[in-house]
Amino acid sequence: MKAVVYGLLQASPFVLYSLLAATTALGQITPDNTLDNESSIVTPNVNVNGNLADLIEGGAIRESNLFHSFSDFNVAEFGRVYFANPAGVANILSRVTGGNVSNILGTLGVLGNANLFVINPNGIVFGANSRLDIRGSFFGSTAESVLFEDGTV
Question: What is the pTM of this model?
Answer without folding.
Answer: 0.81
